[in-house]
């Protein structure tokens, strides 16, 4: 029992532990029972918050911090990661243009911009990156990625040939797009955007209608923004012959999905798939006796592209059992048992406050992991 291989591949436990810290806590607990096992830690994410940190930790990469233009045009501090010896950059668009940078009263998708995302991409190329993983999600914006394009040299012009200001509302005045000065390095940049959103750019299920209200848009402003994005898509189609309006995922991050497709010539993919590929999880689980995954909350939505299911799918291709830990097991959590996860454990010992659950996350995970190992040993003795 002391020589088998255990792969530990959790997502972060939001607000308390990074994915790497969670993995280390699971290992610590299991070492109480299996001190000589071969532990392989693979911090995971699903393309959203924590993706940069997870891939940097998994690949011993580097985190770069810099000033960029925030969603309201003011300087903010943002970051991106470099992995694969600097050849691959990992960017979360929310780091530059996320809703967390704004108070509720500051939210205004009519004027917020993704300009800072473009600045991060430019900096990544300055550092030598030729492959970009761009996490879409958590945006404060609804500008179709046009702000990002402006930072990279694109000019968005009205009928008078004047450049448009920042924001989604301004796209209603868009008449032409000048790409003559766009950064030429983009032609050599391989871009993969991580998103589990399938919304089109416009319409009843589009970026503005579905996500505009949470970004501060009124019903009237939602209609205004949807019209503006439709005009953007029309200009792109009429001028370049490219249809971005109804492609699944184009509406991700306020239309940044569409901007990624058009301006960056990128590909949209499920986030967990990209993280599994870049972390080389499939190779790392070869020969494992057990895979442990988890995240802060497992519920009925977990089966839709979340980390535990992606990890389980990868492990099951090699017939390896999978156990998942969570801070909370909520309604519908048993659905994951039909998607490759063999057993579920909540790490919370009983009725506790959220504050205490977050504060005690590490010792709770250590204790639960140790108990999993003890139960596993009991099962082996029954054979």
TrEMBL record:
Top-level division of the source organism's lineage: Bacteria
Keyword ATP-binding: no
Name assigned to this protein: Glycerate kinase
Lineage: Bacteria, Bacillati, Bacillota, Bacilli, Bacillales
Family stated for the protein in its record: Belongs to the glycerate kinase type-1 family.
Keyword field: Kinase, Transferase
Stored InterPro entries: Glyc_kinase_flavodox-like_fold (IPR018193), Glycerate_kinase (IPR004381), Glycerate_kinase_RE-like (IPR018197), Glycerate_kinase_sf (IPR036129)
Presence of the UniProt keyword Transferase in the record: yes
Molecular function, one GO term: kinase activity
